[in-house]
Amino acid sequence: MKLRLFFALWPGPELRDALAAAARPLLGACRGRRVPKRNYHLTLAFLGAVPAARLEELRAVTATVSAAPFQLLLDRHGHWPGPRVAWLGCRQFPGAAEALVAALWSALAPLGFQPDPRPFRPHLTVLRGCRACDWEGAITPVDWPVSDFALVRSDTLPTGPRYAVLESWPLQAPAGVEAFPG
Ligand code: ATP
Ligand code: MG
Asked: Does ligand 1 lie within 6 Å of residue 156's CB atom?
């Protein structure tokens, strides 16, 4: 049996509300299928179909990933006509977030996983089946303090994708960067 897997930043309930509120004017202005709030996520690394038997080694290498917490500021929106999605994103994706993605792929490489050759474009999809989106407003920026990341299973159902967080891992500043004790 294979599982369709990806690593993602998985917002907590309050943040989902804030993201939905920020997306509202965009969703009001553009046609498409709204992504349910419970499905909001930001994909870090897409693995695709993975044999279920490999899940344990995948969890084990992921536990070795060391990366610091960071703050995301979702302060822009965009639309891609190819995949027909509209999304929220960051003007400035933080270096620490890029470092987490790089650390994940380094840990996964020995298991044979490789990133898509296309450039990584972090985004949080809010609308699908969206052919055009010419809303020219600005979203209300949302601050997202990121302190963990998740391994997510994706199942495509007739009603749309269903995601399940299999495990999440905390982000921790590497030892030695704390201020000197008083
Ligand atoms: P659907 O069931 O309609 O495909 P989905 O695209 O949300 O829904 P998946 O295809 O399982 O579900 O993808 C899960 C997540 O990984 C999504 O955020 C998706 O954008 C992202 N993703 C899918 N394929 C890739 C890829 N080749 N490279 C990077 N990210 C991807
Ligand atoms: Mg897909």
From this structure: yes
The residue with tokens 């998985």 is 10
CA of 178 to the centre of ligand 1 (A): 37
Q: Looking at residue 174, what is its pLDDT?
A: 72
The predicted-structure confidence for 5-58, as pLDDT tens digits, reads as follows 999 999 999 999 999 999 999 999 999 999 999 999 999 999 999 999 999 999
Looking at all shown ligands, the one closest to residue 154's CA atom is 1
- Percent of the chain predicted with pLDDT > 70: 96
Q: Left if phi > 0, otherwise alpha if psi is -120 to 50, otherwise beta: which for 32?
A: left
Average pLDDT for 76-88? 97
Which ligand is nearest to the Cα of residue 128, counting in written order?
Answer: 1
CA distance 71 to 74: 10
Distant-in-sequence, close-in-space partners of 38: CB < 8 Å, separation ≥ 6? 16
- Sign (positive or negative) of CA dihedral 80, 82, 85, 89: negative
125-48-163-138 Cα dihedral, nearest 10 degrees: -10
Residue type, 101: V
